[in-house]
């Protein structure tokens, strides 16, 4: 294992982490501020990817594709907030899970109805394709570096929004005490719609950015959704900072674990068995990480005290 | 389209008119992530039935959603209340393992248009089970043989960590004469292969073999092409079928893959099939569609010789495989799995559509290794 390979794998872990953060940030805002478990968050990711693929095919421009992804996902977010989610804020979590699970099925079959069952094509823009050579002779895909950059910019923007603006103050206040902030004259229902749209747009952005290097297909959101839930549980529900740290932890653990566990095991086992056992163990690592964090801090790293 | 009763009047052959109707239960994946495969099998199958012009075949089609429990429920219902004679359609090996043994034990015929798990080819073989596609290992064995033939001597191999993935790497190693640089199991459904690609870059392999069906293969190929690693890649046809290639785009161009069928196979049955499939569905057929088409034609050929209620005669008629396969020569081995030629293809762009072209033969008249374990 050379140093170059190690650095490359750390970059891979970071890139995976920041994309996970885009998903987790929206999820943690919605879960933390509104107390809503939104299983359909993965569908918004899929909506973003499909909108981007459609716009890229129609216009040939990746920038327009990103705009399309952001607006389509935000629009879909506003629609489902007004039509469905709004009725669920006071409902028990089980009702929320059932209703948002139904939304997953509707989004999936609706997307299949419109776009068909075969995966769509969405590619990296020419300006960002191919590898670049980093200091030390590391070859790394430029697009993945760009993803890391976009993720960090969004993280900084979200931090500024929640900590330095009036809207952010209302969001944080709404998380702590929604009756009080409503009594103080803030239109809580408009605030919720806005937060939901913001979370949806971030998921859509992640879907479009990741869709360019993956497969744009029905059901692509659900595996990411599970990881995003793990992330916000590790980071502490409702905390943007927690989602960021949690996402990087999950990204690095998952990537480095998948590489190093088989290598470590191959010291004691036959290569084939080490590869199989290592892969099986690596897929459990993030859940082991989550368990360990929860034992140490039951409300997550930045979760604060559990509300009464 | 739950009940599709095909009533075309043009049934001509006098002998068949006297025989009983055949009811076929098709359980396949029509929704969710793997729906493209099921839809292709269904469309190929129905095309053959339609072309036969027969009005004595009734096909009941149901969606298993790629879930074993649902497939089992559907099979029970088809056997007990629909009283079908023949079952077919299942795409995934884990679903086939849940359905096939109990269906054949209840005296139904099962014609597999896709899944070919080793268990059903070896000790678990059954006189009423016929696989029209391949035994799961076949395309991987062909890839190993072809890699040796073109002179690769050190392969980096990867597949998802589940039974078919393990079988794939075993199959590749069975006929590959070179060394294995590294063997890597990825997670099932994994979408990011940056870590594996970095390991490929760092390894001293001269070739890469991967089995990543469906969306996993799309992700891998796009990321591999963008990474700048230029080691040649080989895969089985599952990552290069007609439904997937358009989503991979340029990243797949020139990649070698192994398949028992290709759209440019030079025989009359295949040319007619490709032409009529495009005319009917306005897209090129995939290998899954070709398997569905062959499955239906096998069934029709048996119906012309025997009555389905006479199980022994019908089974003997199926064993003869007396139909014009779109693969050219086709026959069953002793375990009712195909003995067939497997080709090497490469991905090309043709009139703005990505597709495959045959570049050589990987294995001639190849049978699977499990046949010896089958006693029936």
Structure, described:
The complex is a heterodimer of chains A (308) and B (376). By secondary structure, chain A is an all-alpha fold. Chain A has helices at 3-34, 41-59, 62-83, 93-115, 142-164, 166-176, 178-183, 188-211, 221-235, 240-265, 271-296, and strands at 131-134, 138-141. In chain A, helix 1 (3-34) runs parallel beside helix 5, helix 1 (3-34) packs antiparallel against helix 8 and helix 1 runs antiparallel to helix 10. The radius of gyration of chain A is 20 Å and the shape is globular. Chain B has two domains: 3-134 and 264-336, Response regulator (Rossmann fold); 138-259 and 342-373, 3-Layer(aba) Sandwich (Rossmann fold). In chain B, strands 7, 8, 9, 10, 11, 12, 13 and 14 form an eight-stranded mixed β-sheet that branches. Chain B has a six-stranded mixed β-sheet with strand order 1-3-2-4-5-6, with helices on both faces. In chain B, strand 12 and strand 13 form a beta hairpin. In chain B, helix 9 (215-227) packs parallel to helix 10. Chain B is globular. The two termini of chain B are 37 Å apart.
């Amino acid at each position: 294992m050379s140093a170059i390979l190690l650095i490359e794998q750390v970059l891979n872990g970071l890139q995976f982490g920041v994309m996970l953060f885009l998903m987790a940030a929206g999820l943690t805002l919605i879960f933390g501020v509104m107390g809503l478990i939104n299983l359909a968050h993965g569908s918004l990711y899929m909506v973003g990817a499909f909108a981007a693929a459609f716009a890229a095919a129609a216009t040939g421009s990746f920038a327009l594709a990103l705009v399309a992804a952001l607006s389509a996902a935000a629009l879909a977010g506003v629609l489902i907030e007004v039509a469905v989610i709004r009725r669920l804020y006071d409902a028990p979590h089980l009702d929320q899970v059932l209703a948002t699970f139904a939304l997953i099925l509707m989004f999936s079959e609706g997307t299949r109805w419109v776009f068909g069952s075969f995966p769509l094509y969405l590619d990296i823009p020419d300006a960002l394709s191919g590898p670049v050579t980093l200091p030390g002779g590391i070859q790394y895909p430029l697009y993945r570096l760009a993803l890391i950059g976009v993720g960090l910019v969004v993280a900084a923007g979200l931090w500024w929004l929640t900590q330095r603006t009036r809207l952010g103050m209302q969001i944080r206040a709404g998380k702590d005490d929604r009756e009080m902030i409503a009594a103080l004259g803030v239109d809580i229902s408009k605030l919720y719609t806005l937060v939901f749209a913001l979370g949806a747009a971030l998921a859509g952005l992640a879907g479009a950015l990741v869709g360019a290097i993956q497969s744009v297909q029905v059901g692509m959101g659900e595996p990411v959704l599970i990881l995003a839930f793990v992330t916000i549980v590790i980071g502490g529900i409702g905390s943007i900072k927690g989602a960021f740290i949690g996402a990087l932890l999950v990204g690095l653990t998952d990537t480095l674990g998948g590489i190093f566990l088989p290598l470590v095991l191959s010291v004691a086992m036959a290569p084939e068995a080490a590869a199989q056992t290592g892969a099986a163990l690596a897929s459990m690592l993030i859940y082991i990480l989550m368990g360990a964090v929860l034992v140490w801090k039951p409300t997550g790293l930045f979760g604060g005290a559990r509300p009464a | 389209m739950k009940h599709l009763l095909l009533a075309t009047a043009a049934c001509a052959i006098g002998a068949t008119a006297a025989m009983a109707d055949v009811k076929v239960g098709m359980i396949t994946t029509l929704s969710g992530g793997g729906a493209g495969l099921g839809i292709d099998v269904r469309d190929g199958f129905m095309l053959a039935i339609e072309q036969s012009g027969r009005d004595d075949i009734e096909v009941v089609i149901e969606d298993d959603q790629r879930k074993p429990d649902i497939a089992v429920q559907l099979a029970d219902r088809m056997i007990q209340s629909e009283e079908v004679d023949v079952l077919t359609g299942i795409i995934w090996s884990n679903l086939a393992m849940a359905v096939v043994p109990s269906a054949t034990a209840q005296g139904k015929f099962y014609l597999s248009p896709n899944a070919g798990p080793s268990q059903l080819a070896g000790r678990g073989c059954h006189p009423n089970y016929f696989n029209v596609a391949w035994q799961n290992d076949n395309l991987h064995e062909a890839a190993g043989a072809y890699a040796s033939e073109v002179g690769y001597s050190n392969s980096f191999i990867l597949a998802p960590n589940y039974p078919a993935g393990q079988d794939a790497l075993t199959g590749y190693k069975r006929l590959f004469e070179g060394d294995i640089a590294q063997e890597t199991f990825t997670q099932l459904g994994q979408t990011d292969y940056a870590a594996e690609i970095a390991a490929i870059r760092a390894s001293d392999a001269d070739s890469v073999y991967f089995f990543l069906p469906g969306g996993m293969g799309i992700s891998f190929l796009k990321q591999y092409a963008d990474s700048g690693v230029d080691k040649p890649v080989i895969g089985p046809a599952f990552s290069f079928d007609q439904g997937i290639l358009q989503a991979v785009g340029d990243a797949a161009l020139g990649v070698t893959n192994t398949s028992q069928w290709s759209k440019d196979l030079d025989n009359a049955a295949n040319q007619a099939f490709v032409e009529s499939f495009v005319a009917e569905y306005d897209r090129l057929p995939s290998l899954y569609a070709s398997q569905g088409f062959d499955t239906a034609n096998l069934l029709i050929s048996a119906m012309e010789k025997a009555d389905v209620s006479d199980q022994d005669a019908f089974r003997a008629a199926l064993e003869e495989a007396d139909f014009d396969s779109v693969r050219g020569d086709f026959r069953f081995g002793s375990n009712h799995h195909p003995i067939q030629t497997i080709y090497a293809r490469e991905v090309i762009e043709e009139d703005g559509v990505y597709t495959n072209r045959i570049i050589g033969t990987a294995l001639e008249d190849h049978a699977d290794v499990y046949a010896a374990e089958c006693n029936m």
